[in-house]
Amino acid sequence: MLAQNRIAFKEWGAVCAALGQGRQSVLVRKGGIHEGQQGFRVDHREFWLFSTRFHQGAEQLQPEFSDLLQAPIAIEPASEKIMLALYAVVEKVAEIKDPSVLSRLDSLQVLNQETIQQRFEYKNPGLFVLLVRAYQLSQPFEVESETRYAGCRSWVELSQEYSTSNLTPILTDEQFAQQQQALEQIIT
């Protein structure tokens, strides 16, 4: 793991909450408007999770996960600050081109089938699934929001590097290995 990092990955607050609670270990990504012709790429294997609320709503989640919208990381902050509490390390990247695989992802993530299907079909059919090992800071911190962080993009470069010391894994090694095995069974 890097000792410091300034790269952040923008993701819905509810998904960040799910990662932070150990209810999810994958990120399902199509890409943002600003990703260009090439679409989404895994440019970084480690990153801070940058919680967003734009386009997010209970109607995009599996019903049993709507409570995630009330988690502190998923709620719009009162100030113009961004809370950094979670860090992720990408352990595997899979590109899904077969739509029959989509329903089997339900057990690994919190988005509902309609949302996953819409992402899959947007522009060119397909999705990226990133298996990530999530870590939490013992004491979350806030960074100032900047206009350059705005917009539909996956990656942002923070104005400074932040230490990754004091991180603890959300899932035990055994729990994470089970998630990894479950993803392998789905995508093979």
Automatic annotation (TrEMBL):
Pfam families the UniProt entry points to: DUF1802
Top-rank taxon, per record: Bacteria
Name of the protein this chain belongs to: DUF1802 family protein
Organism of derivation: Gimesia fumaroli
